[in-house]
Write a structure and sequence with these properties.
3-stranded mixed sheet; 190 residues; elongated
Length: 190
């Protein structure tokens, strides 16, 4: 477990966890900075009983924090998971058959089955990116490479130039139409 990437991000994680605790959340483990390890270390934290309306339930934390929530069924779990403006990554812990049914219902750019993120991150041929307000576009795979490109159309006229300023319009029209008819007749044109 490494440190957080900046003081600003450390402050966000600490503030979100502190808000949850002050609102009545239960800390199962962690929940505090570790200055003995370095200035930006925050303990891996697991919380439960986080009340509705607390930012930790609907915002991206980008820190070592997990919220456990009890739900009545899988439909409530999916609804709670989707109740956010964000959708970068989700995990389903179930059989592959059941995951195939449930994964499309999750509003996340990556859905991992029986894994947190490692398999998807290592799949360089799979496009990676979020849904909703999580990220922009895709990285990795063809979709990730294409975001760095610009498409361009280049055409080559093989039968007759499209414009012939030296030819009178009526004659040009007749010649061009005849070229189209001949092109179709000899399967040169679709």
């Amino acid at each position: 477990m490494g440190c957080l990437q900046s003081q600003g991000q450390f402050d966000i994680v600490k503030s979100m966890v502190d808000e949850a605790i002050e609102s009545g959340a239960t800390v199962l483990t962690g929940g505090r900075p570790r200055p003995d390890l370095g200035p930006l270390f925050y303990e891996p934290t697991v919380l439960t009983d986080v009340p509705e309306g607390v930012a930790l339930l609907t915002k991206e934390v980008f820190g070592p924090v997990v919220v456990l929530q009890r739900v009545s069924d899988v439909h409530e779990a999916i609804a709670k998971s989707n109740d956010s403006r964000y959708g970068l990554n989700a995990s389903l812990w179930t059989s592959p058959r059941r995951a195939k049914e449930l994964a499309p219902q999750l509003e996340a750019g990556t859905v991992n089955v029986n894994d947190g993120f490692a398999a998807a991150f290592a799949s360089v041929d799979a496009p990676m990116g979020g849904f909703k307000d999580s990220g922009v576009g895709r990285r990795q795979a063809a979709g990730g490479l294409l975001k760095y490109t610009d498409e361009q159309t280049v055409t080559v006229q093989r039968l007759s130039p499209v414009s012939m300023p030296q030819m009178p319009r009526e004659l040009y029209s007749k010649v061009f139409n005849m070229a189209l008819v001949l092109g179709k007749k000899f399967n040169v044109l679709p």
